[in-house]
Amino acid sequence: MSTLESIIWHVLGYSAMPVIILSGFAVVAVISLWILSLGKDKEVK
After folding, report:
1. 40 vs 43: CA distance, rounded Å
2. Which pLDDT score is estimated for 28?
3. Centroid of chain to Cα 35
4. How far is the C-alpha of 14 from the C-alpha of 9, rounded, in Å?
5. Over 80: is that where the pLDDT of 45 sits?
6. pLDDT tens readout for residues 16-43
7. Which residues lie below 8 Å from residue 1, measured CB to CB, with a gap of 6+?
8. How far apart are alpha carbons 11 and 25 in whole angstroms?
9. What pTM was computed for the model?
C-alpha cells in the first residue's frame, strides 16, 4: 500500500466514528421532534 493510500485509510478510519455518532444524534433528534410535534395542541387561542 502506498503512502497516499495509507493516509486516506487513516483519515477515513478516524473520521468514521464521529460521523456515525453525530449523524445518529441528528436522526434521533429529528425523530424525537417529529413525535413531540404530533402530540402538541395545534389550536392556538
Report:
1. 9
2. 97
3. 18
4. 9
5. no
6. 999 999 999 999 999 999 999 888 766 6
7. 9
8. 22
9. 0.60
